[in-house]
Amino acid sequence: MHRLTVHLLLVFAALPAASQTLPADHAERMKAGTALFQKTIRPALVSSCLKCHGDEKIRAGLDLSSRELLLKGGESGLAIDLASPGDSFLLGLLRHEEEPAMPPKQDKLAADLIADFERWISLGAPYDKPLLEKAGAAPVEMQITESDREFWSYQPLAGEPAGQVDIDHFIQAKLKEKKLTPNPPADAHAKVRRAYLDLIGLPPTVEQLKAGLAMSHKDLVDKLLESPHYGERWARHWLDAARFAESHGFEQDYDRQFAYHYRDFVIKALNANMPWDQFIKWQLAGDEIAPEDPLAMMATGFLGAGVFPTQLTEKEFESARYDELDDMAATTGTAMLGLTIGCARCHDHKFDPIPVKDYYQFLSLFTTTIRSEIDLDLDPVNYQNQLQKWKPAHDKVIAELSEYEARPDVIAAFDNWLATSAKTAIKSDAWVVSEILEATSSEKATQLTVSADGFVLASGKAPAREVYTVKTAPIPPFNRVKSSTQQGTMEAFRFLRIEALTHETMPQKGPGRAGNGNFALSHLEVFATQGAERKPVKLTSAKATHEQNKGGLSVASAIDGDPKGTGWAVDSGGIGKDQAAVFEMSGVVPGAALEIKLTFGNNAQHSLGHFRVSFSSENDPPVVVGGGTSARMQAALAALETGSLLPEHRKLLFSIFAKTDPEWLKRNQAVQTSLNQKPTPQTEKVQVSSEGFPPTKHHADGRGFPHFYPKTHHLNRGDVNQKKEVAESGFLRVLMRNGKTTGDWVKNPPPTWSRTSYRRLSLANWISDVENGAGHLLARVAVNRIWYHHFGRGIVATPNDFGLQGTLPSHPELLDFLARRFIASGWDVKQLHRDILLSETWQQSSSAAPEKVMIDPENQWFWRFTPRRLEAENIRDSILAVSGQLDSKLFGPGTLDLSQRRRSIYFKVKRSQLVPMMQIFDQPEPLASQGGRPSTTIAPQALFFMNNNQVVDWARSLATKVNTADEETAIREIYLRTLGREPDSAEMSETRAFLAAQSATYSHQPSTPNHQLSTDNSRQLALADLCQVIFSLNEFVYLP
Amino acid sequence: MNLPSFYSRRQLLQTAGSGFGAIGLASLLAQEGLLAAGAVDPLAPKKGHFEGKAKSVIWLFINGGPSQVDTWDYKPELAKMDGKELAGFDKNTGFFAGSVGPLMKSPFEFSPRGKCGKMVSSLFPKLGEHVDKMAFIHSGHTESNNHSPALFMMNSGQPRMGLPCVGSWVTYGLGSESRNLPAFVVMSDPLDRGLPKGSAANWGAGFLPSVYQGTWLKPKGEPIDNLKRPAHMTDLQQQRQLDLLKKLNGQHHESRPGEVELDARIKSFELAYRMQNSAPEAFDIDREPEHIKKLYGVGEKSCDHFARQCLTARRMVARGVRFVQIYSGGMENQRSWDGHNDILGNHSQFAGETDTPIAGLLADLEQRGLLKDTLVIWGGEFGRLPLSQKSAKPGRDHNPHCFTTWMAGGGIKGGMSYGESDEIGHKAAVDKVHVNDLHATILHQLGFNHEDLTYVYNGRRFRLTDVGGKVITPILA
After folding, report:
1. Cα A743 vs. chain centroid, distance in angstroms?
2. A150 backbone dihedrals φ, ψ, rounded to 5°
3. What is the number of H-type helices and E-type strands within chain B?
4. Does any CB of chain A come closer than 8 Å to the CB of residue B51?
5. Are the beta carbons of A494 and A588 closer than 8 angstroms?
6. Helices A647-658, A662-676: crossing angle, 10 deg rounding
């Protein structure tokens, strides 16, 4: 009976909506209901219900994954009652009025939330989309709806507020609402100290404090913002968000030796007050936006800063690359937009309107982006200046040479030379160097480059086996000038020479590409082509300057018909030296072009690195390296013979004639001397993320790791073994407004540009577009980060998550006001700092009146300045500074040497060897983007202050700086240097008592060879012990 | 301001006298009001989702990938097929696609051991005595055939770098019972054979706050940084420093009542001082009586180093340390159980280094009543192939499809086997156990629903078992 009822009810519930009369306000109710669903119901269903009711199991037959299934109810009947929402069974379970109380074994959901459920049911319990894609059911592609776009962070910024408003206006309005009053301003002393620590991360020196107290707060803020140390402190926050490190992580954790340039970029950009939109765009596509600017190239280090395995097996190549693309996309999302794009890798984002489709389209933007190490001139302005200085003098000598060459008397002399001496002056070699039209390898990894004078150079990673094909220009009827008295005769070429040449880019200088510099030419074939005819040329009688042996590695074995087993090789005395092999050809007719195929099939990577092809028509041409007349010279000589010299022939012959003219030689020498003086750019290796540069060397290169795949695919469940169609590049649809689509931001590279795809440049356009793109969110996230690091709390408390799982802004109007102002100022970061520091909000005292603490213990409404512990870097840097140890050199490679004295940002960030002190004080692991750091208080931090050798050394250093005859003066000075104030009388007496007791015990201690204790010495030790205590004080390590 | 010194020797001795052992320091500290700072103390003891059977974990990480068919997974069929090619074998299963040999029987003899009669390899003469305490899981499988991703998988549940490891999750979930020692300690090979591949990331906290990362005990010199008073100073002199610090901080704090963090920081120095005085004692295994040292094999050339680490592990858990991980072997190849060459020699060596110490550890934990709430885990990052890897002396290559893990103590049923590999030990076949399942089981024994131990980071609620994990209930006592 009961069962029957259920079924009957189901029938009603499942009636299609169209057959019922819809209430007049249906559309509004659905809209409100959907908004509520997205805001609170969906997160609650996903986190508390879905696992047992729809995802892994369907407990009690109740499936909550879609509206249809919810309406069906479960084994206990209907879950919700649309007619009488308050009586819904689901609500009873949630209120723990019905059994079993839901969610099981957990506290009741918050009353507010249960009320939301009731309201949601009363609005018709709409879903914007199912919570899960069910197998069997046709997958519903997630769409971005208008209600998705209504979530606050995807909305455009609120309009300009009316009237004259500032930060304090918004903060104080909220305080009033919460029945709180702002704290009075902090005292002048605390403000100066706070400004120093907040803006540059170092405490003021005694003199700076004095000067700071004497100037206005505004002047002090301006002065500190101009300090180069400002960038050093604020860069660190962005480096956390950028998961910056200088090693790969994983197995061997290889160093990324040139990754520090990215850190320097961040510091330099902040110090130079680079507009934030440019700062962001350069990190994504500086190599496309401003490839001539080294800073823009350095900026691209952002994309390649993530972890990457150092050891890969073939099975892991592709998934590792997808992980790398994910790292780039996810970090771009969290660091720049506060969006957790990475969550849509396996399925549509559970909370935010980011379909899995958008994820792969976004991933596709980075398809061809790889890490490379390139040579960059970091000071191009200097180079240009030097070039400008050099150029006029150079132009002058060039002009002098050209003028001379154009003089009628010189031309007459040349004509005379052509008529009388040219033929004897030009010695024609037995070998004619072929003009090569094309040289290719069978393997993609190899590039063959042909120089104007006929040399072929191989580059790229040598593949295991390959075949080179070399095509020559048609060989002109050969007319060799044997001597001035002899007429040339038309002869066909009878010999082929292949010179195997050394080159500095080859292992052991070559001539081969194998690790030992060897090669093995296993098979040599020549074809003569003329018109459509292509005939093999028979090769016989091979000779060589050197052969590895007389058997399988002899030169003869290159033409023995065996393409794999045997071949000409040159080890055993021939490595690092130029070599040549000569073969006799038969059947080559004048006018034919030759196609030469060189097969290297005998041994892995044993191909030729650098070579030249020449021909001879002599009977027994010498088997030597070098010499050779170019084919062009041959042609010029032939033209001279027939009296048909063309301008290019004259030019070539002039270059021979000129060498006999002392005046020309003199002027040419002046040009050469000037060329030698041409300034060259001073380059440094820089790690960049770009396209088309050679990839940074990788451990798995030997296994054929491709570094990237030309296409990115949509994947099923994030699995590279379940590829779907190719993913076109695209941006996040929820952040495209006014009907715009990806194409509206796409910019194609100009015809002169082919190295990169401009996909990232298009991304940079979209992300910073305040009209129709992601620009408003970009600005919100940026100002929130800066606010966060000034106050220890963001307006949005989750700086890396502005999505539905993040917290809502405590002061949404303020956030929008700041973001709008930020954009209007030209993304002026320092102006934002200035606005914040000059606000009354920032200048409030930190005192905590109990009645205010009662209302707002976490100070989320900013009724005071929250005192907070300095971050790891600033603790160390402050101690170094006050103890006179700080080396304030900026930029350059970092170090792992713990005793280094530069600011902590210059520690090299090696993932397997993080600096212990930084770790103890909460520096996060640089593995994925971090928006904020926890501030923990743990015993190992105290042990660091108590026992660390460096702390002891720093304390001793400070003690020597203040060692005066008078103890009270010494104590006073220690206080001033560290805390910026004089000790009060209680402190004076406590510290004096300590010094007395401590030095008494030191003077009684037996001296050891290391510690020659005298009275002076014991007092010195006691003073150092005092300094150590002062470093450990809360007052020293907390922002006042 | 004339407060009595917190650091009087008498009081310290009292602390030392009552603190070690069953009472546990948490209650002691609670009495003294030190846990009032719990709001900002990320390591304060916390409750799990339910009362777990295990309070601590000792994880013997058999680094490099021990061969299941040469240790605990007896395969008579493999012996019959010795020398035969394995048809259809994917040459990219292991690391070296170019040196795949035929099937190879185990070079070790197997014999029945314990009451349960488990067939055990001759590699483990002593450990074989303890099979009645162990539950063997023969059907483990993982997702990578490469050391570091597989190590990350085993330690953090995913073959990627950057996720919190098991020890960090557990410390995050339960806090620490020991205020004098780190909650989570890791010991690596002390014989200069390197760290496991991926090194510190294997005990990293990932996106969890860095306080939850494992404390690596340095194999040489002082095991923990900053634990020793500066050399030039006497205890009295340091106490005087701490007294002054307390007075000055107190004065500062007086004008800022209610600043919990400042108060916690003052107290952290008191905790630190205690840690400094008691932690070295915990590491000092020379205090152990001779018969105990002998039980572990301390002083035996082949296994002294591992014996010391096992003994240290017992001293740690006895003092409330939550999670101890010891790596047997260093990096790869001959430096760990990574027997690519000479499986006979390689496994003989590393089994020889660990057989007596682990047997001693199990016996000692049991005789002290500690085994019941200490979960002991033995296993590596993957198994090895039943085929030979061609070499002068044949070895075995990596095998992600099958490995054996055993657990003992901490509410685990002894003398049983769960899951089966196929008849040659190539792939897990019956009741397959994914790494997530092992983790779910470990968390369960400590009192967690693995699905509910979560941490929200960058918009996502993360858990150790990602979207998988099933507790292996048949092995639970």
Report:
1. 25
2. -80, -10
3. 11, 19
4. no
5. yes
6. 90
Question: In this structure, what DSSP letter does residue A695 have?
Answer: P
Q: How confident is the model at residue A16 (pLDDT cuts 50, 70, 90)?
A: very low
As a whole number of angstroms, the distance between CA A173 and CA A182 comes to 10
Chain B CB contacts of A51 under 8 Å are 451
Q: Are strands B428-430 and B420-421 parallel, antiparallel or unpaired?
A: antiparallel
Residue B285 has pLDDT above 50, yes or no: yes
Q: A928, B269: Cβ pair inside 8 Å?
A: no
What CA–CA distance (Å, rounded) separates A749 from A756? 8
CB-count burial class (<10 Å; 0-12, 13-18, 19+) for A1009: exposed
B92 in contact with A, Cβ within 8 Å: yes
The whole-angstrom separation of Cα A56 and Cα A816 is: 41
State how far the Cα of B110 lies from the Cα of B113, in Å rounded to an integer: 9
- Give CA separation, A937 vs A732, B205, B266, B411, in Å: 40, 17, 9, 34
| Terminal-residue alpha carbon distance, chain B | 57
Confidence of residue A1008 (pLDDT cuts 50, 70, 90): low
Eight-class DSSP state of A86: G
Q: What value of ipTM does the predicted structure carry?
A: 0.76
Query: How many Å apart are CA A553 and CA A600, to the nearest integer?
Result: 12
Structure tokens at B247: 């007075």
Q: What does the alpha-carbon distance between residue B251 and residue B245 come to, in Å, rounded to a whole number?
A: 10
Dist. CA B164–CA B172, nearest whole Å: 10
| pLDDT confidence of residue A140 | 65
- Give the chain B residue nearest A322 (alpha carbons): B160
Question: Going along A618-679, which residue ranges are E strands?
Answer: 629-630
Nearest CA in chain B to A351: B459
* The amino acid at A775: G
Cα-only R_g, chain B: 24
Mean pLDDT estimate for chain B: 87
Helices (H) and strands (E) in chain A, counts: 37, 20
Q: What is the pLDDT of residue A483?
A: 38
pLDDT digits (tens, 9 = 90+) for A546-557: 999 998 899 999
Nearest C-alpha of chain A: how many angstroms from B125? 34
pLDDT tier, A476 (very low <50, low <70, confident <90, very high otherwise): low
CA-to-CA distance for B71 and B69, rounded, in angstroms? Answer: 6
Of A249-263, A462-476, A565-579, B291-305, the poorest mean pLDDT is in A462-476
Q: A610 forms bridges with which residues in the sheet?
A: A457
pLDDT at residue B460 above 50? Answer: yes
Of A801, A1001, A1029, the CB nearest to B236: A1001
pLDDT (average), residues A769-792: 96
Position A27: which residue type? A
For residue range A116-175, what is the model confidence (pLDDT) as tens digits? 999 999 888 888 888 876 655 555 677 887 778 888 999 999 888 777 889 999 999 999
Average pLDDT over residues A212-217: 96
> pTM surpassing 0.80?
no
Give the pLDDT band of residue B115 (cuts 50, 70, 90): very high
**Peptide bond preceding A100: is omega within 30 degrees of 0, i.e. cis?**
yes
HSE of A865 in the Cβ direction (CA atoms, 13 Å)?
Answer: 27
d(CA A550, CA A543): 11
User: Which residues of chain A have a CB within 8 Å of the CB of B275?
Assistant: 939, 943
Residues of B in contact with A1033 (CB under 8 A): 245, 248-249, 252
Q: Which DSSP string do the residues of A197-259 spell out, in sequence order? A: HHHTSSPPPHHHHHHHHHS-HHHHHHHHHTSHHHHHHHHHHHHHHTT--SB--TTT--B-TTT
Chain B CB contacts of A800 under 8 Å are 458-459
Strand partners, B134: B408
Which residues 851-910 in chain A show a CB within 8 A of chain B? 853, 867-869
Residues 6+ apart with CB under 8 A from A585: A493, A494, A495, A496, A526, A537, A538, A539
Tokens representing residue A858 in the block: 């976490």
